Amino acid sequence: MDWRRIKLIRRATAIIFLAALSLLVFADSLVGSVEKEPEKNLSWPEPPETPRIRFVKSVSSPKDLKLERSSFLKRAIKKIVGIESADSTMLFPYGIAVDSRHRLIVADQKSRLIHVFDAQEGKYFSIKQPKGEVFVSLVGLALDGEDDIYVSDSYTGKIFVFDRTGKFKKRLGPDEGIFNRPTGIAIDQSLGRLYVVETVKGEVAVLDLNGTELFKIGRRGYGNGEFNFPTQICLRGDKIYITDTLNARVQILDKDGKFISSIGRLGDAIGDLDKPKGVAVDSEGHVYVVEGLRDRVEIFDQDGKLLLTFGSTGSGRGEFYLPTAIHIDADDNVYVSDSYNRRVQIFKYLKNDGSTGD
């Protein structure tokens, strides 16, 4: 092949590349210029009743929060050569937390990483498995007083700890023989305690933040303070809330594990539970329980009375497809891992006094 022909081929390739780039620029400008019709407010219960839960937004990738991304030129080149940035898109979100900087942190079971969305700073980054370790089944997520990130891996039986920048600090288990199948985790920042739900053992291990076991709560069974494949846990005030999944209830205990009461019972009526997963509590003490198989969230008072349900099966706003975890932040924003829809949906609890916390 002579040099003249090579030169022509290179020139033709450059022309094609520039043409493709121009088309992408034009398409991007069109997308930005199209004004979407404002979506109607979505709330529960429906009018004319006073709304208590309002849909805010859903998040599946940094673009949903308009966070910092690579330049358009870099993105265009990646599209042309067939490279997609898949790491930043949720595939199976599970554990959720919000830190003191209002960053949304999500454990992604299928992507095997931790997403960190910083809306205030307009940035996003992800935390991947540490060198020499492997993420297999990330489930629980919790934060200590320094915003260090704790994440449980139910398959490897380990809990990994990272600082707020994503730097790996340490791991707890399994060499020490502590955990079997750790799932939901929670941290009492005032007492320096880490609560770890041991699903297969039917108990909750309580440790200090260095991993030293302090005591255990519960055992396998059906009575008060006993568990049958518990999964998730939430601390609020001086109480612990544990989803006792195969007993179809949420048990409420004090911080030392003494039984207080339980919410829910097995059944298929509204307000009954089947296989509860995530649990969270708002600033007024209402208990939110994720019913994964029924694709809804049920809200109870402290006495177990059903107050409201929201959500249904689907992929639209306020609809779920096998949701898992739930988290409520200090401002009563409600985050639900809509796992099979590959997103986290955000709602707002509207207080009885009419305030929204905005």
Describe the protein's topology:
Blueprint: H1 3-33, E1 43-44, E2 53-59, H2 72-81, E3 93-98, E4 104-108, E5 113-118, E6 123-127, E7 138-143, E8 149-153, E9 158-162, E10 168-172, E11 182-188, E12 193-198, E13 203-208, E14 213-217, E15 230-236, E16 239-244, E17 249-254, E18 259-263, E19 276-281, E20 287-291, E21 296-300, E22 306-310, E23 326-328, E24 333-338, E25 343-349
Antiparallel strand pairs: 1-2, 2-25, 3-4, 4-5, 5-6, 7-8, 8-9, 9-10, 11-12, 12-13, 13-14, 15-16, 16-17, 17-18, 19-20, 20-21, 21-22, 23-24, 24-25
Describe the 3D structure:
Helix 1 (3-33) packs across helix 2 (72-81). Strands 1-2-25-24-23 form a five-stranded antiparallel sheet, with no helix packed on it. A four-stranded antiparallel sheet has the order 3-4-5-6, with no helix packed on it. Strands 7-8-9-10 form a four-stranded antiparallel sheet, with no helix packed on it. It folds into two domains: 1-38; 46-349, 6 Propeller (Neuraminidase). The protein is globular. The chain is built from two helices and 25 strands. It is mainly β and 358 residues long.
